[in-house]
UniProtKB/TrEMBL annotation:
Domain VOC, first and last residues per copy: 4-134
Top class in the EC scheme: isomerase
A GO term for molecular function: methylmalonyl-CoA epimerase activity
EC assignment: 5.1.99.1
Organism listed in the record: Mesorhizobium sangaii
UniProt-recorded name of the protein: methylmalonyl-CoA epimerase
Amino acid sequence: MLGRLNHVALAVPDLAAAVAAYRNTLGAEVTEPQALPEHGVTVVFVNVGNTKIELLEPLGERSPIAAFLEKNPSGGMHHLCYEVDDILAARDQLKVAGARVLGDGNPKLGAHGKPVLFLHPKDFFGTLIELEQS
């Protein structure tokens, strides 16, 4: 079911500072910020060749990232994103296996314009999992 690792997402308290650290200190290629109001985040992607690092900053008062940063004020790893060929088939297979899909169970469009779903971290050893249709 799982394809390649699409990205590792890091929640950050200050997106501009995180971009500067990756671009200026590490010499990485970083995309322009993209606001995703339906997800409550502003994101940038850091290209690291074989995958990406997604830097997430809260967007709006109801952002799920804001709650994460309250518990982790310096930021930290938020989720792993894996590609799947068919997100609806993957969702259905995971539900049968007992995994919990967050939200209403229907995919939303993610930062890459592709359908995404999130899986409950308690079902995956404390790690939030995002699935993105490839």
